[in-house]
Design goal:
This protein has 563 residues and is α/β, with parallel strands linked by helices. Helix content is 30%, strand content 19%. The protein contains 16 helices and 22 strands. Strands 3, 4, 5, 6, 7, 8, 19 and 20 form an eight-stranded mixed beta sheet that branches. A five-stranded parallel beta sheet has the order 9-18-10-11-14, covered by helices on one side. Strands 15-16-17 form a three-stranded antiparallel beta sheet, with no helix packed on it.
Length: 563
């Protein structure tokens, strides 16, 4: 028989952590949540509000997830602030004031901390606590954690908490990818990773600095570092497409107009493929269906407006190769117009499909290469040979000397943080083994063989192809509704059906195959990680996905075994 009370007797004790008040996990809880980013915080609030006992385990010293760790110079969101924010509380929407079109990391972190305070979340969060293993035993999960008791590695205590359910709110971009190079430990200067930046900040004034990597974090940090450093050398493996942010302070009148009808603003966003930009719909025509002048005018208007919606000028940007080429040509022309040195402009110009990798949004990135203290090394032409005590030797045997090296090399995306945990389901089945050839899942929410285990914005869901906070809210609410259903039905477990899982994986592959997303090596496919299976992980199309999840729930959780 199932314990119908579902109310645990463990006492939550307040202790002092790195970010103020912090909760100690009870021995037994209904829901264990891994991660205190935007997903974990809302999951905690939602499950508590639904009457479940819940606790969050967070390896960092505070809330915020990616915005707690990614403090590199120039870090800011690439989704407008008024859209990249919670919508579950009208009071929260009305009271919080964003200062800029695209919020900086410090402002987003302040927002996360405000949410934690406003909804009294910290009392149920264990900070500086790493989940090392999750083991299914009987009809519950044993959550093993290692908590640093002093904030110093090596001084740690290990505990085990029993939970009826586990929700992985580990984030899609939270496991830093730190590549290894020959003799890299010889370098005597300082090294940094953009995904694990020192909280006290870094002053590069007067230094010779190298930045390795030109994805989003590299493109955001390069202009800021260049303004400080005596000399900056950018080591680029693959050039990225980037569009201007056109960031600016938010007009009080514009903010007031949104807040006057925030519900309709959010509704329009939810109907778009990426859950953002509902007030700027995708153009009604393909790029090949209009004249050259019309196409240039439409692209120029989007370029001047700035932001990710640039690709929405035409409706076939990611399905028609010829349309995509015309749009990419426009961006390459912009690079040549901006960068004065034709050879540097050539190196900065991608030759791949635009949008098959995450489109970057920048402030003065290409303009930075006109500075006299900035150099560009194309690693495809002159690859890194090895590190030395003083710097890096590149392909032509030239030793480049540096005082500091910044790795802007991204993340083991979508699956990395999950795979870092030793997760064992029925019959001691290891999730790492199940995912050895790619992340099998159903709806991006669950995996066969792992009962009562849910993922928020996991592989197989739209996640990183959308406004993440909208996808997070959808998943949190779906999972909470599912738990409430199980409680009403006095059911103890829910588990993905293997045939439904196989069909879902095929569906994701089919949809992705209808687009140009799979045409290049990107972190969407895990191509930035050596040895990782090449599988396109996110699912294009937010509205259709939401409808599918709704249908599954309305049909008594079709595709799941409920016992």
């Amino acid at each position: 028989m199932v314990d119908k009370s579902w109310s645990c007797d463990g006492l939550t004790v307040a202790v002092v952590g790195n970010n103020g008040r912090m909760g100690r996990a009870p021995d037994r809880i209904d829901v264990a949540i891994v991660g205190a980013g935007f997903a974990g915080m809302y999951m905690l609030h939602k499950t508590r509000s639904a009457g479940f006992s819940a606790h969050v385990f967070e390896r960092g010293g505070g809330v915020g997830g990616t915005w707690y760790w990614n403090r590199y110079p120039g870090a800011r969101c690439d989704v407008p602030s008024l859209e990249y924010s919670y919508q579950f509380s009208e009071e929260l929407q009305q009271e919080w004031e964003w200062s800029e079109k695209y919020a900086t990391q410090p402002e987003i972190l302040r927002y996360a901390e405000h949410v934690a305070d406003r909804f009294d979340l910290r009392r149920d969060i264990s900070f500086d606590t790493t989940v090392t293993s999750l083991t299914w035993q009987g009809e519950s999960w044993h959550v093993a954690t290692t908590a640093s008791t002093s904030g110093v590695d090596g001084d740690a205590a290990t505990t085990v908490t029993t939970a009826r359910f586990v929700v992985l709110a580990t984030g899609c971009l939270s496991a830093a990818n730190v590549p290894r190079f020959t003799d890299d430990r010889l370098f005597a200067g300082r090294t940094y990773h953009t995904g694990n930046w020192p909280h006290e900040g870094v002053d590069f004034t007067g230094q010779r600095v190298a930045v390795i990597g030109t994805g989003s974090s590299g493109i955001q940090s390069v202009p800021v570092i260049a303004s400080q450093a005596a000399h900056l050398t950018v080591l680029q493996r693959t050039p990225a497409y980037s569009v201007p942010a056109r960031n600016q302070p938010l007009s009080p009148d514009y903010v007031a107009s949104i807040k006057a009808n925030y519900g309709e603003f959010r509704r329009k966003n939810s109907l778009t493929r990426a859950a953002l930009g509902g007030d700027t719909p995708t153009g009604p025509h393909g790029a090949c269906e209009v004249s050259d002048d019309e196409r240039r005018a439409a692209l120029e208007a989007r370029w001047q407006k700035g932001g990710l919606l640039f690709l929405g000028a035409f409706n076939d940007a990611l399905t028609n190769p010829e349309s995509n080429r015309l749009i990419a040509d426009f961006v390459r022309d912009k690079i040549r117009q901006t960068v004065r040195d034709p050879e540097i402009a050539r190196r900065l110009s991608p030759d791949s499909v635009i949008g098959c990798k995450r489109l970057c949004v920048d402030t003065d990135y290409y303009e930075t290469f006109n500075r006299s203290n900035v150099s560009l090394i194309d690693l495809r032409e002159t690859p890194i040979e090895r590190f030395t005590r003083r710097g890096i030797i590149v392909g032509d045997a030239t030793e480049l000397e540096f005082d500091a090296i910044v790795f802007a090399t991204g993340f083991d995306a979508m699956t990395g943080a999950i795979s870092n945990i030793d997760i064992r389901g029925r019959d001691n089945l290891r999730l790492r083994d199940v995912w050895s050839e790619g992340p099998l899942n159903y709806l991006g929410l669950a995996v066969h063989g792992f009962p009562n285990l849910f993922m928020i914005t996991g592989p197989g869901s739209p996640s990183v192809l959308t406004n993440m906070i909208v996808s997070i809210q959808h998943h949190v609410e779906w999972i909470t509704d599912c738990l409430a259903h199980l409680r009403r039905e006095s059911s103890s477990t829910i588990e993905a059906d293997p045939s439904a899982q196989a069909e879902w994986v095929q569906h994701v592959n089919t949809i992705a195959g209808m687009t140009l997303y799979t045409s290049c090596s990107s972190w969407y496919l895990g191509a930035n990680m050596y040895g990782k299976p090449r599988v396109f992980m996110p699912l294009p199309g937010f509205p259709a996905y939401v409808q599918r999840c709704t249908d599954v729930a309305q049909h008594h959780y079709q595709g799941f075994h409920v016992r």
